[in-house]
Amino acid sequence: MEQQTIGVTVVDLVDESDDCGGFTRTFQWACDRNLSGYVIQEVWRSEAYGDGVNQEYAHEDHYWEVWEVRDGVVYDPQGGALDQVPHDAWLNPSNSSRIGKTGSWSFVANVFWSDSFDPTSEGFAVGNAPAAGNLLSSKVAPSCHMTGLFAHQRGKTWDARLTEQFARNRILFLASDFGPKDAFEELQEYGFSEEDAREYVRKYHPKVKRK
After folding, report:
1. pTM
2. pLDDT, tens digit (0-9, with 9 covering 90-100), for 44-78
3. Nearest to residue 98, comparing CAs of 156, 54, 158, 46?
């Protein structure tokens, strides 16, 4: 696949992450006005997390997506112009099950251009790659001639083992059988500082008298 300059760039709309493995990135393709053809994107997506000793979850995905461009305007699979909305979204939802875990995620993509593309003959359809949502997608590389444009990526290693929410959950879990001193020592074993462990035990342990 040859590589050259074609008037396509990526414009981020939202690009944010948190410390529990959550990530949201939405973006658009900015195309030169006289450009007609197809933007093709190859995506590798991965995520893994655990308690720092044992890996509890690992997932990898690889798929292709395509967008039609007419005179610089990007269209959805139904033929609607995508003017004021994201053209793609990279999502890794945050949830409370990752509290007390540590892990990493990544999205890596190569972007290509093709002057002609037939979704039917190439085997592209909505739903072929679930992670692509309502875009035309495939798990198999297209056979058409493609020009390489650029690569873009996002990734993060996160650690939610030393959050206040995790400390609260552990203290309340231990409270029925262990006193404040035991909870304090366990938090320190997890890596909490003496100051933070003491503050969280005072704040959340039901056997601590509060004024």
Report:
1. 0.82
2. 999 999 988 899 999 999 999 999 999 999 999 99
3. 158
149 and 60 in a common domain: yes
For residue 17 the two structure tokens come to 């992450």
Cα 54 to Cα 4, 49, 122, 126, distances in angstroms = 45, 9, 41, 36
The answer to whether residues 102 and 191 belong to one domain is: no
Query: In terms of domains, do 155 and 175 share one?
Result: no
What six digits make up the tokens of 99? Answer: 């509290």
Residue 210 lies in a domain: no
Note whether 88 and 57 are same-domain residues. yes
Q: What residues are paired with 99 via a beta bridge? A: none
Determine the Cα–Cα distance for residues 177 and 174; give it in Å rounded to an integer.
Answer: 6
Contact 38, 114 (CB under 8 A): yes
